Structures are given as C-alpha cells and as structure tokens.
Amino acid sequence: MKINVKCIPPDGETLAGSDPSSIMELEEPDTRFEHDVEYELLAQLQGNALLVTGQLRTPATLRCSRCLRVFDFPVRVDQFVFHQELHGEDFVDLTTNMREDIILELPQRALCAEGCKGLCPHCGKDLNKGSCRCKPSEGDLRWHALDNLKLKLK
Ligand SMILES: [Zn+2]
Ligand SMILES: [Zn+2]
Prior knowledge:
Elements: E1 2-4, E2 13-19, E3 31-33, E4 37-46, E5 49-63, E6 70-85, E7 91-93, H1 95-104, H2 138-153
Antiparallel strand pairs: 1-7, 2-4, 3-5, 4-5, 5-6
Bound molecules: zinc ion (2 copies).
One zinc ion binds next to loops.
C-alpha cells in the first residue's frame, strides 16, 4: 500500500480498503495468505513526518501442528503504527511494515483448537474424531512398571 503524501489534507486522511494477498510474499506450505489484506488507516502529516496508524486484518491459512488439519486463523493488527521522516518524496510505501506486523501476529505454534488431541503416533488416526484401538506402546508400559516399583519402595 502506497500513500500519496502530497494528497493528505491538513486534518489527515482516512484510508480504508484492501491489498491483494500477494503483498505477504510468503511461500510456506503451512502458512499461506490467500485473502486480501484489509486496512483501515489514518494518515497524518506531522511537520516533516508521515504518521500512519490504524488496523490491519487478514485470515491466514495455517496447518495445525498436532493434527495437521488446515484451518483459517484470523490475523488482526490492532495498533499498526508507521512513522517516517519525509524528504520531499511523493509516495511512501507501507507494504513492508504491514507485512512484518501481520507475520508477528502469527502463533509460534499453529493449533486448530487449544485442546487439539492430535494424531495417534502409531496409526495416525485423528484423535479429535474419536480414540483408536492402539495399545499403549512398550515405552508407556515400562513407565507404568517403574511407577509400581516406586510405590512398593515407599
Ligand atoms: Zn489440530
Ligand atoms: Zn492409534
């Protein structure tokens, strides 16, 4: 999104609209942006500087790190702030800052739901849809034996 600095009236200019998802320039299989980036911004001139504040919104398409399901995650940047000294230029490009702020709002670890149960490590069944028939693994049994032993020692 580019702002024409010369067109901003003294009391500021409200800018509402959208940029195509391509501004996100992200080519990751598990994090995709397929929808427009919507913005509602207020551009103001402050002496020799441009100040832009407002909100950004776009849904990201993520893959759950536990069950691998693809889901939409609504990204909101509620306090977008851009400030830049002006040196006579006509246009100022906000795209890089918008992209960075949106990416900062992505979760470190994508989860389709807080309590996602994930996949069974043995048969791969989605445990959100019901339990599977896998027996507890040897590792689990050994831990149980150890627990029993500890109880006896007490
Ligand atoms: Zn999940
Ligand atoms: Zn299983």
